[in-house]
Design a protein that fits this description.
The protein is an all-alpha fold and about 100 residues long. Helix content is about 35%, strand content about 0%. It has one domain. The longest helix has 11 residues. The chain binds iron/sulfur cluster (SF4) (2 copies). One iron/sulfur cluster binds next to loops. It comes from Hyalangium minutum.
């Protein structure tokens, strides 16, 4: 399976090492869907390899691919909740209630 640089795996999953919430674009992802910190990206990004998921989530737009990815793993509702309330760890960092 070849990576098409579609960007979905840098948007859809939550990445603890980056404190990146579910369904939100990694701040290091450039508009061209390239990694701006490629040489110092976390291990979890280094070990990520394209697989059949990349094929299953194919769609014309990044937003659609992200939605398909989240649906595939049953994470759509959680991602929507995150979108509405923000990331738990960010709230914690700001000292606000969960
Ligand atoms: S989802 Fe798959 S095809 Fe898209 S950027 Fe990630 S590894 Fe590459
Ligand atoms: S650090 Fe780079 S490879 Fe990892 S999610 Fe962000 S943009 Fe993608």
């Amino acid at each position: 399976m070849e990576c098409t640089r579609c960007g979905a795996c840098c948007v859809a999953p939550d990445i603890a090492a980056l404190d990146k919430p579910l369904g939100m674009r990694c701040p290091h992802l450039t508009p061209e869907n390239l990694c701006s910190v490629y040489d110092r990206r976390p291990q979890v990004c280094r070990s990520y390899e394209p697989d059949e998921v990349c094929k299953l989530i194919e769609a014309p737009t990044l937003e659609e691919r992200v939605q398909k990815y989240l649906a595939l793993f049953g994470l759509s509702a959680e991602a929507e909740a995150t979108r509405q309330t923000g990331c738990a760890s960010m709230r914690q960092a700001r000292g606000t209630k969960p």
